[in-house]
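Researcher: I'd like a structural prediction for the single chain below. Treat it as a standalone chain; there are no partners to consider.
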Amino acid sequence: MRLWAVSDLHLSSVANREALGSFPVLGDDWLILAGDVADGYGEIDRFFATLASKCGQVIWVPGNHELWTRPGERGELRGVALYDLLVDIARSHQVITPEDPFPVFPHRTGDVLIAPLFVHYDYSFRPAHVPAHAVISWARRDGTVCADEYYLHPDPFPSSAAWCDALCRKTEARLDACPAALPKVLVNHYPLEERLAVLPRVPRFTPWCGTKRTHGWHTRFNARAVVYGHLHIRGTSWLDGVPFQEVSLGYPSQWRGEAGMAGYLQEVQLAPARPSAAAP
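Model: Treating it as a single chain, here is the predicted structure.
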């Protein structure tokens, strides 16, 4: 069995949706979807149904796009209520979510616990001289503003930062409760480390790219790999001996349609197994 990952399929794009026919059959292999499958929930439901016969197990974490609420959508569910609906949809297709028990994957180099995370962002990926209350106006001065400010609502929390705080506390507690010696694959839509949130074309977009609360989680929680997306900059960075894989597909201009989606699935790369990290 092999472990694959992809993110940012953006099936709300017609070209990306039409390319679904090239999505490969993975047999018993597992597939990680690291967020931004589509805007809202309709395309997600159909895609999960399509995947049911294509791989052994799907693991999904939400990106920001799944949490968008556009006027007239399903009673305009927002925030936590929308997220809960997405979790219900995923579970109806046996897709594992951040709300489910973390599964153990039988990797050929040893078992690894896969931890799908949803911790959101809190605008803390900003320069030290920019205060929290001014971060959006600071980004706008460079012509940058994330569409989340119009479509993503943190209800019933008063702000995205407050939602992020609650999610981080909940997630830390869950990870702390996992066997420390069992190696892990941490999966999140956003990069867990600020130093990876580098966007040369839109440098002031970083406040919407994660939270400093997750700094060091890869060492604290014995990760052999971290999988993420959001940046639309595919590649692998090694930090503290751990591979961080950005696995985005992206918008139509960011990938070659003739290669098909199969060409953009990435096998998850694990750090070498450490004898001291073997599961008991």
